[in-house]
Design a protein that fits this description.
Methyltransferase, Cobalt-precorrin-4 Transmethylase, Domain 2, binds S-adenosyl-L-homocysteine, 5-stranded parallel sheet, Rossmann fold, Cobalt-precorrin-4 Transmethylase, domain 1, alpha/beta, 20 strands, 5-stranded mixed sheet, 504 residues
Length: 504
């Protein structure tokens, strides 16, 4: 078999900036060779069984050489069908993607190029700098600053570039910024011309320094802004003062750990990202459906006989309706007399997708809330189906039974601890916030902590809890609760985090 190698531009860092085609191929890939820069937020979109190869430099490890990368791509295409080479920005803008294409072409391997959003344009754009502007700049030159202007045999003619009016976007130029600026000024470029350096463009940690060609190197040094950055020299650079938009987002620069199960993390991560935050997904639990839940078949067969059906989570809804489908039926099996109770708007929303409108959504999204919501209902003698997690608290079934209901509790899934690797845990401890959306996430997260890390957690990141039950679990473990959501939902948790960040 011989596969195809796709040279895909990942975009500059914001994972929303990969193209639709790039994303579709990434999701289908058998093997993914990726750089470190620009690709971090995208790796989670690969298939769980895809082989991932980081070819970039990583702490304590040397990068693969270009020859090694070329050879690995050719070799991978011999056995895998979809081979993705994911590169930061655009693959053909200083990315050596063209060398990889040459190697593939010479080896007779099929390949395609999927262009990407280059940092040369996107990083300035996120800092409010357009690379062209009518009446102000009519040309854009993209140049590598990797070459030393003082070295003989240098390919870049900085004196010539100095004479080209318009916008100059310099990539890989931070190490030689002072020499580059000097070469441009001695070539005749005005020292007072606006110049900006944008580091980590399009990402939550984006930082920029606006100065002039003459002062930029000093200012960058003073502010501690380094690589990776795009430097723009030209008359559009100071439009940043007027049209910077990204840096004003409320969670900019804040790193927020998401401990929910991977399958559910994305809604929270996406919300945080839209607010300018940097989500760090460290799933501490995994949702595992129970193979043959006791009592499920009987419950499904006679689901129309229940007076009340209670669903406590999106997982519960999915698994119950999957069971109905397997039994050859659907939402119609529920009686119109049955009262359907959903804990939380997320659960109600998933029910709606399955064609069922929840009759009762308790005001408090915890087990106690269901008891409160049913306070005015006579449940004596009522048949109640409670479909939920194995490890859930007994508050709800006990409370209903005390009031005379007959409760069938079906355990559809359990949350299983997902160990967090030591280096990922160090990253979590250096973050600004760690979010907990259930007691199970607290317990498994703590299970992955080394003793010394546990001490660091007390005075490290701020701990955010979705509600009182999760907070109690944190406090029982001797940990502080810095932020507790008033509404016990993901949007409620994000609101509480926002308020905390604003007060800071
Ligand atoms: N193919 C890439 C460029 C690779 S060269 C592209 O099209 O963007 C690596 C250089 O790109 C870095 O040294 C830096 O100058 C620039 N770069 C990449 N990502 C960046 C980012 N998010 N913010 C600022 N500069 C970035």
């Amino acid at each position: 078999m011989s596969g195809t190698v796709y040279l895909i531009g990942a975009g500059p860092g914001d994972p929303g900036l990969i193209t639709v085609r790039g994303q579709a191929l990434l999701e289908a890939a058998d093997v993914v060779f990726h750089d470190r820069l620009g690709t971090e937020g995208l790796i989670g979109r690969c298939r769980a069984d895809a082989r991932l190869v980081n070819v970039g430099k990583a702490p304590g490890r040397v990068a693969m050489s270009q020859d090694e990368i070329n050879a690995s791509l050719v070799e991978a295409a011999e056995t895998a069908e979809v081979v993705v080479r994911l590169k930061g920005g655009d693959p053909f803008v200083f990315g050596r993607g063209s060398e990889e294409a040459q190697a593939l072409s010479r080896a007779g391997v099929d390949f395609e190029v999927v262009p990407g959003v280059t940092s040369a344009i996107a990083a300035p754009a996120y800092a409010g700098v357009p690379v062209t502007h009518r009446g102000v700049s009519t040309t854009l030159t993209i140049v590598t600053g990797h070459e030393d202007p003082d070295k003989a045999g240098e390919q870049t003619d900085w004196a010539a570039l100095a004479r080209v009016p318009g916008t100059l976007a310099i990539l890989m130029g931070m190490g030689r910024l002072r020499n580059i600026a000097a070469a441009l000024m001695s070539g005749g470029r005005d020292p007072a011309e606006p110049a900006i350096a944008v580091q980590w463009g399009t990402m939550s940690r984006q930082r920029s320094v606006l100065a002039t060609l003459e002062t930029l190197a000093d200012r960058v040094e003073h502010e501690g802004v380094g690589s990776p950055a795009v430097v723009v020299v030209g008359p559009t650079a100071d439009l940043a003062e007027e049209i910077a938009w990204f840096a004003t987002r409320p969670l900019i620069g804040r790193r927020v750990v998401v401990t929910r199960a991977r399958a559910q993390a994305s809604a929270l991560s996406e919300r945080l990202r839209l607010l300018g935050g940097e989500p760090i997904e460290l799933p501490s639990i995994r949702i595992e459906p129970i193979a043959q839940p006791a009592g499920l078949d009987e419950a499904v067969t006679s689901i129309g006989d229940y007076d009340i059906v209670v669903l406590t989570s999106v997982n519960g809804v999915d698994l119950l309706f999957d069971a109905l489908r397997e039994a050859g039926t659907d939402a119609r099996a529920l009686s119109s007399e049955t009262s359907v109770v959903a804990i939380g708007p997320g659960t109600a929303g998933r029910l709606a997708e399955r064609g069922v409108r929840a009759d009762v959504i308790p005001e408090r999204f915890v087990a106690e809330g269901v008891l409160e919501a049913l306070a005015g209902t006579d449940v004596a003698g009522a048949r109640v189906l409670l479909a939920r997690a194995e490890d859930a608290r007994a508050t709800l079934p006990d409370g209903l039974r005390e009031r005379g209901a007959s409760v069938d509790e079906i355990h559809l899934y359990r949350s299983v601890p997902e160990p967090i690797a030591a280096d990922a845990m160090s990253e979590a401890l250096a973050a600004d916030y760690v979010t907990f959306t259930a007691s199970s996430t607290v317990r498994s997260f703590l299970g992955s902590l080394e003793a010394d890390q546990r001490a660091a957690l007390g005075d490290g990141p701020r701990l955010v809890s979705i509600g009182p039950v999760t907070s109690t679990t944190l406090r029982e473990a001797g940990l502080p609760v810095h932020v507790e959501a008033q509404e016990h939902t993901i949007p409620g948790l994000v609101d509480a985090l926002l308020a905390d960040a604003a007060a800071d």
